[in-house]
Amino acid sequence: MQRGKNHPYIEKILSHAEVPNLITVAPLYVVNYNSFDDTYQITQNYQGTPLASVNPAVETFKISGRDALRQRINDGQLVDLAWFNEQPDKPVVRYVHHSHRPLGAQANRPEKRVKSTTSTSPAEPIQTLDFDLKAQTVAVVMGDANTRQQQITQLIDEHNGHALLIDAFKHSNSASFYNQQLSQTDIVVMVQNQNKHATSKALSKAVKQYDLKMAIANGGGLQQIERAMYRAVKGLPAFESGNLITYPQAEAQ
Q1: Are 219 and 193 in contact (CB under 8 A)?
Q2: pTM listed for this prediction
Q3: Which partner from 99, 105, 138, 238 sits 20 to 30 angstroms from 81, CA to CA?
Q4: Nearest CA to 31 among 101, 85, 117, 84?
């Protein structure tokens, strides 16, 4: 498949080739964010089975915040790990499950995890508008994105999209960073009151380079972000202020 300006991407994996004996694959492991060192840590699968039980060389597998952004890995996400049998101390993320998580994916989290600002995903849907992202990737650029990561990811999932959250406080004016992160993105939502002018400038260059859809949310509320996504999808004005826009309401569930 091709996205944007001939950027290849994988839409769906239908099947895997047979795994050679020299490789071990550990499927459906849960990613947990650790704010202390800004890493994403993996210690168990969605059933609570410790990673060390299948790979004694690695009790906790860590992913840096930068690598997590590059691979679109979020807190609570499921990934498949793999390693060469001769090098069990060097596992890698083989596949990231961006949708269709098992219901028990976040039921068993490591007890040593310190930060827990949110509980498991709400059972009730949180979308209020009726539109379909059609598997497009939405990058939400806002300060301290991790505090709302779970809710924003759920909102985008409910609209059939993929979420990429970028912390604008850490990456305020790095043009090269945004060029790299947005190369596989379809829609950009910038939260205006949680960004600096330098961020807007860097984003603008990347949006033009990759011909992306972009909208501005005045604040970091879920409804403001949702409305911005709708405007981007429909080619409406980027700003809501001063524009009379009718938003289609989602049916009550």
Answers
A1: yes
A2: 0.54
A3: 138
A4: 101
